[in-house]
Amino acid sequence: MKPRQRRLLWVLAGVVLCATAIMLTLRALNANVMFFYSPSQVHAGEAPQGAAFRLGGLVEAGSVQRSAEGVQVRFMVTDQVQRVAVHYQGLLPDLFREGKGVVVAGKLQSPGVFRATEVLAKHDENYMPPEAAKALEDAKAKP
């Protein structure tokens, strides 16, 4: 094999190695992407079935139900137009309250129930995630 052919072989091997590394990196990043949806978008069918996503809005007043052990919690998340039932098993953040902003991560189950794996509550009275604030504004603007 001539030196020129050997050099070409090394260059091709490097290109294949770089392409493989880029493909694996993009696949790993794509697996960790989690999109945000409002209750109105969930009811419109825009949210994926069986895939993880984030749901944001307000905890509906009077909707929080806790189990006797206090580990299982059911509540409604609303954007003041539509609402979605959320089931969560675990400890809630200290700032979790009815009427306050919340973002939950998990998967939508078939009968319209969102099974949450993580609950994030707003940290002070002036803060709401930008996505949740925009979803509330959009929901109010719709006729």
From TrEMBL:
Q: What is its main location?
A: membrane
Q: What is the lineage of its organism?
A: Bacteria, Pseudomonadati, Pseudomonadota, Betaproteobacteria, Burkholderiales
The record's listing under PANTHER family reads: CYTOCHROME C-TYPE BIOGENESIS PROTEIN CCME HOMOLOG, MITOCHONDRIAL
Source organism, top-level taxon: Bacteria
Matching SUPFAM superfamilies, A to Z? Heme chaperone CcmE
What does the function comment of this entry state? Answer: Heme chaperone required for the biogenesis of c-type cytochromes. Transiently binds heme delivered by CcmC and transfers the heme to apo-cytochromes in a process facilitated by CcmF and CcmH.
Membrane-topology annotation of the record? Single-pass type II membrane protein
Give the signal peptide, or none. none
Which of UniProt's keywords are assigned here?
Answer: Cell membrane, Cytochrome c-type biogenesis, Heme, Iron, Membrane, Metal-binding, Signal-anchor, Transmembrane, Transmembrane helix
Q: Name the chain's protein.
A: Cytochrome c-type biogenesis protein CcmE
Identify the residue ranges that face the Cytoplasmic compartment according to the record: 1-7
Write out the annotated subcellular location.
Answer: Cell membrane; Membrane
One Pfam family this sequence matches: CcmE
